[in-house]
Amino acid sequence: MSNYPEDLKYTKDHEWAKKSGDHVVIGVTWHAQDALGDVVYVELPKVGAKVTAQESFGVIESTKAVSELYAPLSGTVVKVNDDVAASPGMVNDDPYGAWLIEIEPSDAGGYDGLMDQATYVKSLS
Amino acid sequence: MVDFAGWDMPVQYTGVVQEHELVRTAVGLFDVSHMGEVEFVGPGALEEANGLISNDLTKAADGQAVYAGLLDEKGTFVDDVVAYRFSPERILICVNAANVEKDFAWMQAKAKTIKPINRSEDYAQIAVQGPAAFALVQKLADRPLDGVGTYRFIEGAVAGVTSIISRTGYTGEDGFELYVAPERAEALWNALLDGGAGPAGLGARDSLRTEMKYALYGNDIDDQHTPLEAGLGWIVKLDKPSFIGREALVAQKAAGVQRRLVGFELTEPGIPRAQYAILHEGQKVGVVTSGTMGPSVKKAVGIGYVPTALAAEGSTFHVEIRGRPVAARVVKTPFYKKG
Lengths: 125, 339
What we know:
The complex is a heterodimer of chains A (125) and B (339). Chain A is of the alpha+beta class and 125 residues long. Chain A has one domain: CATH 2.40.50.100. Chain A has helices at 30-36, 82-86, 90-93, 117-124; strands at 9-10, 15-20, 23-28, 39-43, 50-51, 56-62, 66-70, 75-80, 101-105. In chain A, the strands form 2 sheets. In chain A, strands 1-2-3-9-8-5 form a 6-stranded antiparallel sheet. In chain B, strand 1 (2-4) and strand 2 form a beta hairpin. In chain B, strands 10-11-12-9-3-13 form a 6-stranded mixed sheet, sandwiched between helices. A 6-stranded antiparallel barrel of chain B has the order 14-17-16-15-18-19. A 5-stranded antiparallel sheet of chain B has the order 5-6-7-4-8. The chains are: A alpha+beta (125), B alpha+beta (339).
């Protein structure tokens, strides 16, 4: 069933973001994986790559569709979840456990500007 | 739901992969009522229909179906069809949904003595596919089906619904396609569900057929490609005295087929998709026509046209995915083999 944790931030492109110390962990929401259907391929940037807010940082493919992944914030990739790249179905099983990348944001204030849970859930209805 | 040739069609009911596995391991139901049917009835029906298609209905028995090309004078596909021979005086041709109007107009224009009848509104079609399909349909049928071999059909009742019971399909699994009156289709569908089948949508239908390298009209075959290029030489009977497209195919065979539809797998990460370019030594030499992450083969597999020099098993080329060349290798098809 649909599930949107309150301790995360969200984007209109259906990514979630979670603060982890000075870093931010990024994944896709329950809604995103539900709309995509069975996720079969995830293409992620390499550690050290720069990502830009609202621009594509990777690709997620399901049996039905190819979709871009959009960065909630600008910054530098510090970790990549290779487990998800190897087993993309994890995104369907547990979209919040199956994080995609962790970044070091270039703008420390950007995180607070993202949608909170209530606003995101409202945007879906 | 998606719009498919004017029909509202479910891409999936529960999930493409789950439905795909259901058909490979048990039994799935596809509502393929959107398919069209065109009938030729009367003395000379067999000869009339046979002159329009590339396969040879005169070599089939009554109660046998043949897969065939409906070709134009260039030898390229107007459509791919399944022709059912009830008798020399009754032939029913099942055509693709998106092509019903075009095919019917074509057949009307080309038929010489017997005028085709568009029966598309008279038939709904349910495909029952999977290793448990036979037992399920047999349980509900009013007559034994043991004698109905692959690409054979009989008329009978299934769950009390008068049907053409055809041992055909588009999945690589055993099963039936049941042609019934539209107003009885729901009753039959529900009886098959009650019997233990699960529903499957267009998404699974596409991944199942792609794993078999079964051509999809509009993707893999169209009015720019001939059966010889598409690897469907077996549905072209050049020893038939005449059919539309024959001369062009005789000429193409004599001149040599320049491009071929091959099955390939990616040997680097990625998924091939229709319309991606096929590259060789940096040049575009072909195009992907279908591709998926095969749920049963567990590989990224694709179908596409390449120059004949690159068509042999083991040949390598690249597929351009988002501007990046990804390595691919031609493999034996079907991609999926039982067991």
